[in-house]
């Protein structure tokens, strides 16, 4: 015979059901408690402060942080190169274990002096400002460093824009150097062969430089469009053609300076010279204004015009663009023509501005090849390219003073430029060194792979 358990026994079924109901209610209360708490108006509306958000994003691998840290790394490696290239400083490391302060003080002295002169030659010289306040020097000495920086910036901005524009269209314009050379040749020829009134003469000379660069860009553009010939090979070969063409034309009797036995052309007429913005005492000229105008034009072309949309579409996927009805052939040709015109304007700045007034074999220096670095540092965006050109112009202007006052080789500036570009192009390396946030670094690396 089966007996029922006592009424107070925990094994009784009704008691078990009641306990289960109580447990279920308790669990439900616990589950809904966080939800109710989360729905409180004060906490739901709470947002991180602006300062906290800034600090959280400051050490992330975003564009600004990577660029700044790339500059820091380049300057640090440059400091090491300055130290190892100074025999007197190296001698103090021979007894560093006995007197470490000597090595540290000597290293700091030579590095700080070099970088101080770099800053004084590129941005601002406190001594010149003090002399101006005391009446011992004019205001031109105060603005001299900025004048030199802007003078070097103008041609680099043009060649950087040339490379950046072609890159956005899926083309690698390695021929900015050759396009600048042809531009400087035609600009100089128009400058001393055409007898024109002042304003018209300048306009014609500037236009001749743009036409020369456009012509030299048209050749690889049409070859790419019609035959599929790779633009890198074509532009590199055309660079050599332009270099030898410049060397040949300078020594022609109707071009060479009759009073000189070396390879130098006649001087460009003053009516074809770009006006100086701050008087004859400073070299900065209207070319920097043209560079800013060209930057605005390229930005508008890429982001606001129909051709800019077609250009970016072809650069992203030429097959898809062709399927959508975009003429890839026409786009390739126009890209290289506009890129060549920009590089030609950069070359024209070298002979119509204050850098030189006659053709020489080295009249354009390396502005075409430096334009590639400027485009990379500016992330092939127009206004970024202008800022990168300003940085490279500052390094060039400051490097001249650093060489004169500190005895540091000017080639060190080239090393700094190359290091900056290396670190900019390798964000993963910067992230690993400074332990930047991985999520932002991944997005940056993706943008680099897409052409920024």
Polypeptide structure, described:
With 452 residues, the protein is mainly α. The chain folds into two domains: 1-122 and 424-452, no CATH class; 139-377, no CATH class. The chain is 72% helix and 0% strand. The chain is built from 20 helices and no strands. The protein has helices spanning 13-38, 41-44, 50-58, 63-84, 87-92, 100-122, 126-133, 139-168, 176-193, 198-227, 231-250, 287-304, 306-316, 318-323, 328-352, 367-377, 382-406, 411-425, 427-434, 438-449. The radius of gyration is 32 Å and the shape is globular. The model is unreliable at 6-18, 31-39, 41-45 and 439-452 (pLDDT under 50).
Low-confidence stretches: 6-18, 31-39, 41-45, 439-452
The string of secondary-structure elements, in order, is HHHHHHHHHHHHHHHHHHHH
- Number of separate helices: 20
Query: Main β-sheet: number of strands, strand sense, barrel status?
Result: none
Distance between the amino and carboxyl termini: 87 Å
Quick recap:
This protein is an all-alpha fold and 452 residues long. It has helices at residues 13-38, 41-44, 50-58, 63-84, 87-92, 100-122, 126-133, 139-168, 176-193, 198-227, 231-250, 287-304, 306-316, 318-323, 328-352, 367-377, 382-406, 411-425, 427-434, 438-449. The protein folds into two domains: 1-122 and 424-452, no CATH class; 139-377, no CATH class.
């Amino acid at each position: 015979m089966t007996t029922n358990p006592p009424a107070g026994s925990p094994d009784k079924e009704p008691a078990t059901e009641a306990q289960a109901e109580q447990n279920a209610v308790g669990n439900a209360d616990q589950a809904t408690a966080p939800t109710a708490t989360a729905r409180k108006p004060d906490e739901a509306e709470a947002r991180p402060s602006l300062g906290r958000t800034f600090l959280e994003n400051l050490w992330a691998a975003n564009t600004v942080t990577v660029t700044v840290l790339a500059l820091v790394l380049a300057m640090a490696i440059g400091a090491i190169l300055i130290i190892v290239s100074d025999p007197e400083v190296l001698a103090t490391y021979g007894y560093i274990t006995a007197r470490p302060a000597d090595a540290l003080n000597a290293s700091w002295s030579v590095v700080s002096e070099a970088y101080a002169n770099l800053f004084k030659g590129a941005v601002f010289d406190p001594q010149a400002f003090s002399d101006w306040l005391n009446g011992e020097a004019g205001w031109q000495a105060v603005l001299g460093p900025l004048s030199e920086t802007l003078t070097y910036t103008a041609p680099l901005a043009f060649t950087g824009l040339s490379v950046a524009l072609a890159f956005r269209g899926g083309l690698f314009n390695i021929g900015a150097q050759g396009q600048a050379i042809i531009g400087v040749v035609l600009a100089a020829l128009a400058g001393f062969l055409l007898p024109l009134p002042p304003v018209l003469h300048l306009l014609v000379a500037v236009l001749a430089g743009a036409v020369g660069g456009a012509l030299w860009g048209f050749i690889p553009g049409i070859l790419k469009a019609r035959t599929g010939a790779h633009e890198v090979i074509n532009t590199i070969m055309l660079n050599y053609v332009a270099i030898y063409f410049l060397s040949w034309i300078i020594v022609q009797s109707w071009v060479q300076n009759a009073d000189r036995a070396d390879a130098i052309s006649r001087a460009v007429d003053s009516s074809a010279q770009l006006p100086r913005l701050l008087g004859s005492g400073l070299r900065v000229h209207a070319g920097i204004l043209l560079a800013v105008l060209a930057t605005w034009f390229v930005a508008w072309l890429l982001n606001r015009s129909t051709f800019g949309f077609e250009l970016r579409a072809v650069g992203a996927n030429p097959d898809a663009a062709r399927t959508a009805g975009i003429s890839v052939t026409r786009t390739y040709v126009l890209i290289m023509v506009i890129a060549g015109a920009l590089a030609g304007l950069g070359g024209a700045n070298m002979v119509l501005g204050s850098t030189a007034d006659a053709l020489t074999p080295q009249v354009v220096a390396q502005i075409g090849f430096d334009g590639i670095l400027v485009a990379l540092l500016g992330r092939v965006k127009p206004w970024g390219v202008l800022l990168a050109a300003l940085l490279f112009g500052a390094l060039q202007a400051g490097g001249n003073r650093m060489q004169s006052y500190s005895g540091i080789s000017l080639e060190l500036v080239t090393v700094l430029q190359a290091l900056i570009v290396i670190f900019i192009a390798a964000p993963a390396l910067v992230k690993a060194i400074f332990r930047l946030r991985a999520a932002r670094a991944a997005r940056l690396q993706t943008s680099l792979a897409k052409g920024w």
